[in-house]
Amino acid sequence: MDLLNRDKCLEYLTKTGEIFEAETLMANASLFGKRYSYLVVASSLYAMSVFDKGLDYCLENCHIESERQGHAWLPKARLANMEVTSPQPNARQQWRDGVINHIFEHNLSRVWDAISRFVPMSKAVLWENTAIYVFWLYENKFLEGLQEEQQARLREDLSYLVQAPAHLFGEKKNPLATFYGPKVATVGSEKPIRIRKTCCYYYQASDEPEDYCSSCPKIKHELIPESVI
């Protein structure tokens, strides 16, 4: 809840900014947003899609535990109430809506709204930071070691996430759908990528000048013809 308080939020971003060492508060906030996104969506969505278990990730039930080892920041998300829910027979979609709503409207949307007002920065950057993790987890990490039936459920859940009603996210438009574009093959990347629509400011925290993410929109991407996937 401290992230919703202007003074406490800025103090926290300043402290984490000492780790990222970015040039601007916007860059530090964006990099923090990436870590926070991963903490919230990785375990919650994996539990939902793989185990049919719902964790209460609303902001009131979730807090960050920070640990530093040298220059490394190792944050963890801890839930006060660890009780889980499961879908009733023939009622998975209704249950899934509730799980998604707790993750996004009752946590991430509130935090992104606060940060975008306090820093300030575009909330679109924070939502795209979230979206790229959701897509990567479902398309890669979550699939590891699963049976075909489980993989099919993951694919269906991702399909639903990118077309679910906007109110589940606490937004006027589905923020994941906004960034769910096709992957394209480019000369500069080994695998097909989704080119970002917003810049995450990573280059402002890099020791190398103009060291952009491989999918950064600031790069002039040279597409390989007929490469849309």
From TrEMBL:
Residues 30-176 form the Aerobactin siderophore biosynthesis IucA/IucC-like C-terminal domain. One of its GO terms (molecular function) is 2 iron, 2 sulfur cluster binding. Residues 196-218 form the Ferric siderophore reductase C-terminal domain. Coiled coil: none annotated. Signal peptide: none annotated. Pfam families: FhuF (PF06276), FhuF_C (PF11575). This is Siderophore-iron reductase FhuF. It comes from Paenibacillus herberti.
